[in-house]
Amino acid sequence: MKLGIAVVYMVSERNERLLDLHLSQIEKNTTIPYTIYACVNHLLPQFLPKLEQNPRVTICPCEPYVARSGLLKHEQGPPAVTSDVKYEHSWYLEQLIRRAIDDGVTHVALFHVDSFPVRHGWDRELIARFSDSCVLAGAVRDIKGDYKPLTAAMLFPREFYLKHRPRLVLTQEDLDSPEYQRYLQAQPHYPDSGVGYGFRAFVEGLTWYPLVRSNLGGNHTLFGAVHGDMIFHLMATAVVDKLNVVGWTVRPTQRAGFVGLAARLAKVLVPGSLKDKLRMHASRHLKKRYQSDDRQDWERERTLLLEDPEAYLNYVRSGVKSPPPSDEASVDPKGTDAMGAGRAPTSPDMAGRVCQRRGRV
Predict the structure, then answer these.
(1) 47 near 11, Cβ under 8 Å?
(2) Does 71 fall in a domain?
(3) Is 143 within 8 Å of 210 (Cβ atoms)?
(4) Closest by alpha carbon to 340, among 13, 5, 20, 10?
């Protein structure tokens, strides 16, 4: 077996330690021979040597992104994802996937700069779940409201790609199709990057293995997630680096307090004809109010991760906080001596015992 790992490297100057952590965690926990296929179109020049000097990294020249161009040149019409940041990321990932397949890898994995494996042997464990019908494993943000594989953590065999030619982002034609409407009803989700792989599996009557959030510790409902006790994802780093905001990442129904309660009640009680008007009115106020709070929460999780990666990753996985270091403990100011995640006791398999149910309805 040979694993190809596709990553688009968009890293701000202050996230050098996050880049180092990402690379070291992949090396520490991956057991199959692998190559990282890297897009560096937006990587700062000072970070390029880190990848050039890494024998496991292949830097891939990628065609620059042109807004609204479509993932394939012959496609016309608007993309499904309205955020240029997310669509650009998918544009580069598609090129990296094709390069890895052309190089003959047996399996392809996708990560973000702020996502990486935290369990040794994650690759073999997931590959062992594949079968003629189960053709994909992927992180899931919300199993009830956003049930699709995320590009922050995805793994699939080359045969699935070559036979079915899935794409990360769907076209408007796809979204308007009867097949997609059945898919959306069966597996509610937001149609951003990664949805095309779930859609293709659904259409072909195939299944995939969801890596759901498995945190036993942590401080936030979204940031700093562990999926399937295998993959960590800080989330939103590329968006923050480029736009300087976290974005509308936590829906009102997911929030605690009065706003969360009101949103959940409205979802059930408000007639469908009024929901869109109410949502538009509320979003103008809630987005401004909560965007600042979300950014503060994200900064907190990032700081905790980079200050002591081993302790933080152990905490979010196991729920057990490490004792504070003694005064005599030496600390590397760049954090390079704490790049590996501690092996925490394995949490229950929150993803279930089997792949998701058959897609056809």
Answers:
(1) yes
(2) yes
(3) yes
(4) 20
pLDDT tens digits for range 153-192: 999 999 999 999 999 998 888 889 999 999 999 999 988 8
- The CATH number for 125's domain is 3.90.550.10
Give the chain's mean pLDDT: 80
Distances (CA, A) of 35 to 12, 75, 94, 151, 246: 23, 31, 16, 17, 30
- Our count of domains for the chain comes to 1
Q: For tokens 């890494």, what's the residue?
A: 54
Are 138 and 193 in contact by the 8 Å Cβ rule? The answer is no
Cα dist. 331→99, 107, 326 in Å? 40, 38, 11
Is 186 within the bounds of a domain?
A: yes
Separation CA 117–CA 30 (nearest Å): 8
Find how far residue 33's CA is from the centre of its chain.
22
Torsions phi, psi for 239 (to 5 deg): -65, -45
Q: What count of other Cβ atoms lies within 10 Å of the Cβ of residue 83?
A: 14
Helix (H) or strand (E) holding 184: helix 178-186
The answer for residues whose C-beta is within 8 angstroms of residue 170's C-beta and 6 or more apart is: 80, 180, 191, 195, 196, 199
Q: In which order are the strands placed within the sheet that holds 3-8?
A: 57-59, 34-39, 3-8, 107-111, 150-157, 134-139, 207-211
Dist CA 90 CA 168 (whole Å): 6
* Predicted confidence band of residue 344 (pLDDT cuts 50, 70, 90): very low
* Residue 339 located in a structural domain: no
Q: Which residue has the tokens 């994650």?
A: 122
CB 340 within 8 A of CB 310: yes
- CB contact at 8 A, 147 and 210: yes
Of 56 and 289, more confident: 56
Helix axes 195-203, 178-186, angle to 10 degrees: 100
DSSP assignment letter at 156:
E
Among all chains, which residue has been given the structure tokens 């680096």?
A: 241
147 in a structural domain: yes
Instruction: State which residues form the domain around 17.
Output: 3-220+224-231
